[in-house]
Design brief:
The two termini are 22 Å apart. The chain is 20% helix and 21% strand. A hairpin with a 2-residue loop joins strand 3 and strand 4. It has one domain: 3-Layer(aba) Sandwich (Glutaredoxin), CATH 3.40.30.10. It has helices spanning 21-32, 74-77, and strands at residues 12-16, 37-41, 62-65, 68-70. The protein has two helices and four strands. It is α+β, with helices and mostly antiparallel strands and 81 residues long. The protein has a four-stranded mixed β-sheet with strand order 2-1-3-4.
């Protein structure tokens, strides 16, 4: 994906659950930094396994940059600055 200035921008997808504080914090931090997100609610999906890509536990949020799944706690560390 390329932004208006011609810079390459990573495609960020975040899977989250309603009422999840960590999910809300992650969305807020990424948006505050100017990232465009595709947010997908998995509330009611029963399990993070609905996402696929080897996810087998209920850790939220689940963040993908492009096709790469970031694993907590490192998921947001790359965006921390």
């Amino acid at each position: 994906m390329v932004d208006n200035q011609g810079d390459v921008v990573a495609r960020i997808t975040i899977y989250l659950r309603a009422g999840c504080k960590h999910c809300a914090d992650a969305v807020r931090m990424l948006k505050d930094q100017g990232h465009q997100l595709k947010s997908i609610s998995i509330s009611g999906s029963g399990s993070i396994t609905a996402i696929g890509s080897g996810a087998s536990h209920d850790t939220h949020p689940v963040i993908f940059v492009g096709d790469k799944r970031l694993n907590p706690p490192d998921a947001l560390a790359m965006f921390a600055n």
